[in-house]
Amino acid sequence: MEKYKEKLVGVSETMLIPVWARAQETKRKDCMIKDSKPLEIVENIDYDFSVFGDYDKFYKTQVGVAARTKILDDLTKEYIQKKS
């Protein structure tokens, strides 16, 4: 499959950060969240994700995105259960 090749700038490029972070978290054996869609997106975009920096330096952002996602997912599930 050919990778998506579009020049991303500004907000479009910035939005790749949480997508990348969720993909990285999904790959972990001890992941907080499992979300295959960001992984699929990252694998199908022709983009140099190294511009975000070394993984070791970017780890705190990745964990922060995963933690925020987990909290929002849990709150959403709780809300839906209360409304059911």
Main attributes of the structure:
84 residues, mainly alpha
Task: List the SSEs and their pairings.
Layout: H1 11-14, H2 16-27, H3 36-43, H4 55-83
Helix pairs in contact: 2-3, 2-4
Description:
Helix 2 packs across helix 4. The chain is an all-alpha fold. The protein has helices spanning 11-14, 16-27, 36-43, 55-83. It has one domain (11-83). The termini are far apart. It is built from 4 helices and no strands. It is globular and about 45 Å long.
Query: What general outline do the C-alpha atoms trace?
Result: globular
Distance between the first and last residues' Cα: 42 Å
Radius of gyration: 15 Å
**Helicity level, as a percent range?**
55-70%
Largest sheet: none
The helix/strand series, from N terminus to C terminus, equals HHHH
Mean pLDDT: 86
**How many DSSP-defined strands?**
0
Short description:
This protein is mostly helical and 84 residues long. Helices cover 63% and strands 0% of the residues.
